[in-house]
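Q: What does the assembled structure look like for these inputs?
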Amino acid sequence: MATAQRLLMKGTEAIAEAAIRAGCRHFFGYPITPQNEIPEYMSKRLPQVGGVYLQAESEVSASNMLYGAGGSGVRVMTSSSSPGIALMAEGFSYLCGSEIPAVVVNIMRGGPGLGDIQPSQGDYAMCTKGFGHGDKHAIVLAPSTVQEAVDLMALAFDLADQYRNPCVVMGDGLIGQMMEPVTFPEAPVKVYDKPWAATGKPPTRKHNIINSLYLDPEELERHVYHLFEKYERMRADEQRHETFMLDDAPPVVICAYGTMARIAKTAIRELRKTGVKIGLFRPITAWPFPVEALSGVVQSTKVFLAVEMSMGQMIEDVRMVVGRDRPVKFFGRPGGVIPTVEEIIHQVKLLSN
Amino acid sequence: MEGCVFTKKDYQSELKPIWCPGCGDFGVLSCIYQALAAVGVPPHRLAFLSGIGCSSRIPGYTTAYGFNSVHGRSLPMAIGVKVANPELTVLAAGGDGDGFSIGGGHISHAVRRNPDITYIVMDNHIYGLTKGQAGPTTVPGTISVTTPYGLSETPVNPLLQVLASGCGFVAQGGTHDLKGLTKMIEEGIRYKGFAFIDVHSPCVTYGREEDQSKELKAKSELLADLNHDPSDKIAAYRIAEEYGKKLYCGVLYRKDGLTELATMHKQVQKNAKAAGDYPRDEVFKRNFLVH
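A:
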């Protein structure tokens, strides 16, 4: 298959294929809608490339299998949707504490509780600020198109290995279920040295204990400081964002990510046609939030509008950056309802009144 | 290194156990060292996983690759290790609370997958690390810090549970007979598939008088002396039924030749490659190519 070929793929399938091309050979998961095509694809594909697909008895079990396999030094991944991610939180905290790389895909659905199976962005807070107990973080990548999801999968595995920390790819049900043309970049898989992993060799190596237990508080404090030295590096080096139609410093800036950002782009194009000066700021890393880049936009902006498929979670990060000098308005719809282009246009018009 | 002779010392780490003096787990640790030496597992080819609890400290006292993991999750993690690195000899260990309560849901699924893992449970019928709360195998009526009026729940029977799940190697031992226990663990490690060994390992600090080594000895009987046939599953069930009453030591049940997880995966990979329908080529183009 030539590199340049464009393929029409569902987001979930493209994510799975991208993971395999990034060197992932071990997948552990548990069925949940709307991400089932990822495990289904993996179950078919992984054995063909010498990998293993294993359906766990629960999400709790799957996240702990990640710990075991990731601790053995291989590239591992799980995928789930909101309630399943919440169950996996146990394992995620341990992965952070024990510094085990893994990639976690969350195809978000409506909540709270069982909620529904429609696209939502209700897990922003859980992924960026929660993700289990204790002092820790994980890089959260938020793709806006199927192509971007493909590109970010390889990055997710590299970031996980580079920082020895789980990395989250946070999409919503729409990214997962939508079909779009994609091309797979033909980049060689980066290989990271993992002297800490249970690989069974060489015999001369000092034995390892993979652990997150530090009973002496000062020792644990030192360990957490060590973790936060990594998180500070992530904050400094890994902020990613996209701007759209911000070149003429428009007074109105929409902040949106993922599916919401692409709907916002359409609304912005429409508004621009009618003479409204407006642009988009799109975080690609939900954590670390692109603080630096957004700060640079504040001066020239009169009003910000955060648009989300939730009751407003990213808006807290936007407000943190923008401060009190500029108003940050909100429009969002929860429960798996997707705001439309018309609704966004209407909200922008309300701003100028 | 392969083919070398190993001794107990090769498996001892520099960490000294911090269990209470007299704890049964000292004996179990010693048996594990001996069994590993007898099998000749090179320490660097050994992964030892545990959950949380007094007994779960055990990997740290060995020179194995160790995971002191998450409460109740030693089996999912052990499966993760085995799947990622099938070449390793994998042991999992923990207590009865770790294995039969918080991790209870994982056992039957581990059995279903039948990975080549030896699972040793140090069963002391109490939560020791957290200072004496009633656990899943605590005897009814027991007064503990969380059952001040006496425990009203029926204990789980791990032997029956594991047998009923279809496990191909089920054994029971105790720290009153370390020689027998060593042999049992050795046999478990050699067994191709999931081996379950329930070890009565007394808690000297919070355990009942009746569960201490001396009493264990008094109520124990060797299955070998009873001419028990480990291939007889019905007989194994009858023995398992006596869990908590009599202490029958030895291999209750053994069935060889069950399809093991690694073999299963190898076969799946072979079939998948033979079928040659990976989308990279034809199927991929047919399904996904933009025309």
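Chain A touches chain B through 53 residues (CB under 8 Å).
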